[in-house]
Design brief:
The protein is of the alpha/beta class and 301 residues long. It contains 10 helices and 8 strands.
């Protein structure tokens, strides 16, 4: 029986590659915060690229999209928006068909949308965090794989809180860091975690008590597995930590501005088209590759 990933891992070598700096880039959850700042800086860095803003509803995007179009009037036609609800498969499908119908393909997907939590949340809130940060994000990515261009990029905005040193059991750290794990198997790990949260056994099994950390750890693991799967299409897949930033999610006490926080994901968006093992399947922070097991090179974590 084919796994979930095999249903979506299609894509033609025959796809026409876009010229440099003339790409189609989608950033989820980009009507505010880090996502908006990414689009703002991309307007300046890639003036010939088409940038797609997404949010759960069109109303949320009216004002921020109009501001970007006003500030960058020469490229207003290449600043567009589309509603997208992470975790809603019908919304994923509609977004895919909209991108395909308007642009033919997608060069870069930045999975930025997500929810934050502390340790003290209910089972229902845990499920919502997992659905947004992990299950929904992966479902969207797998849905879009057929239209992501060969030699394109997938960037997951994750967190240093998702490094595997947050797990209390070494066996869990080693399992999730295994090079043999598939995306489908990591999705099953996600379901095991949710079930352990329902039975209040997550600590016994070695999981962090913070659902946000677990959702990002699973995302980090799935990104590594996806990078291996997409080797033949030379699609670069990476996760990154933007750091603690002054946004609605990060709060006013955070040490980094949004402009500072987006530098690492922007570096990954700008990776050269040439594919090699140094620029795919890694976790990044402060514009540097980091140790996912120990959290090394992660300032503040």
């Amino acid at each position: 029986q084919k796994g979930l990933l095999s249903q979506y891992n299609k894509g033609g070598k025959e796809r026409r590659k876009m010229e440099p700096l003339s790409r189609v880039i989608a950033v989820t959850g980009s009507y505010k915060g880090l996502g908006y700042e990414m689009l703002r800086q991309l307007c300046e860095r890639e003036p010939n690229s088409t940038l797609i803003m997404t949010a759960r509803s069109a109303d949320k995007m009216k004002t921020p999209l109009a501001k970007l179009q006003q500030d960058h009037s020469s490229r207003a036609g290449r600043l567009v928006s589309s509603p997208l609800v992470i975790g809603d498969q019908s919304s994923h499908d509609q977004f895919k068909e909209w991108v395909k119908g308007n642009f033919g393909k997608l060069d870069v997907l930045v999975n930025n949308a997500g929810l934050y939590s502390t340790s003290q949340v209910s089972v229902k809130e845990t499920e919502a965090i997992m659905d947004s940060n992990f299950f929904g994000t992966m479902a969207l990515t797998l849905t879009l794989l057929p239209i992501i261009a060969d030699s394109g990029s997938i960037v997951f905005v994750s967190s240093g809180g998702g490094c595997f040193n947050r797990f209390s059991k070494e066996s869990l750290r080693e399992e999730l860091h295994s090079d043999s794990l598939t995306v489908d198997e990591i999705l099953q790990f996600g379901h095991k975690y949710v079930n352990s949260r329902k039975s209040k056994s997550e600590s016994t099994m070695g999981w962090s008590l913070n659902p946000y950390s677990n959702s990002k750890a699973l995302l980090n693991a799935a990104s590594r597995a996806l990078a291996k799967t997409l080797h033949d299409r030379q699609i670069k897949v990476n996760t990154c930590c933007p750091g603690w930033c002054r946004t609605d999610m990060g709060g006013s006490m955070a040490p980094l501005s949004a402009a500072q926080g987006v530098q690492t994901p922007l570096k990954l968006i700008a990776l050269p088209e040439e594919w090699d093992l140094n620029n795919t399947g890694h976790f990044w922070s402060n514009e540097t590759r980091c140790d996912l097991i120990h959290g090394e090179n992660l300032p503040g974590f």
